[in-house]
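Side project, low priority. Logging it here so it doesn't get lost.
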Amino acid sequence: MQRLFVFILFVFAVFACHPVKKVQNIEKAISKKDTAQTVIVTEAPKVDSAAIVKDIMEKVMKRSIDFKTFNAKIKVDYEGAEESEHVTAYLSMIKDSVIYVKIALPPYGVVANVLVTPDSVILIKLKGGKSIQYRSIAYLQDVTQIPFDFTTLQNLIVGNPVFLDSNVVSYKSGNKQLLVLMVGDMFKHLVTLDNVDYRILHSKLDDVDMQRNRTCDITFSNYQPIDNFLFATFRQISVAEKSRLDIFLDFKEFSFNEPLKYTFSVPKKYKVK
């Protein structure tokens, strides 16, 4: 059951485990993209290029989903080198406040609950020995080994941009796609955008530390309009270092700004671990 808890956090945190297979680096990924009608900046952007980059990033951020509450039913499939899991996550969230997750594992039904607040994580085991684990929000950073907080988690869940950095080192504009490469303290981040509506199509993170060679690919697809936003109802996440893990998130139901569907209280008589 502990593995299941970590697995769920892994799904939402992207880097929850240390998988292991080398994937092509960002520079090769850029070189293999369509180069037709492109503008390439290989040095720090000059004045005119800086204005273009600023405009691009502003358009991306304007398309971030703003919300008060979020509900979702998510089919989660995990495929690793030695094992696979298929679970359903029932999730409700109040922006900047709390995230409730119920984990259902066939044929047992709901086997675990997870409650995350801006400063704490509570893991509740419902099957196979009832217990509760209390952790600080730093637990997410311990599990993911990246600077990870509540805001980053909620943005990952709703599909908003994460780990965007102002240090843009190159960009490439094609007929259908726009590639932006930025380098932060921990990651090189290559973002592929739709060249018309600037929705995120693909995000590739490479560890700056060449000794680790940790990489993560996130593909966003099956966008559906909701209110004034576009929501990616399917995400494929592939993480690699020495082996590879593939996670698929299929949002079967989702809604914004409606009453919470899934909540729970913390049992008082459960064994605390």
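Brief comment: Residues 2-272 form a domain with the outer membrane lipoprotein receptor (LolB), chain A fold (CATH 2.50.20.10).
Revisit when time allows.
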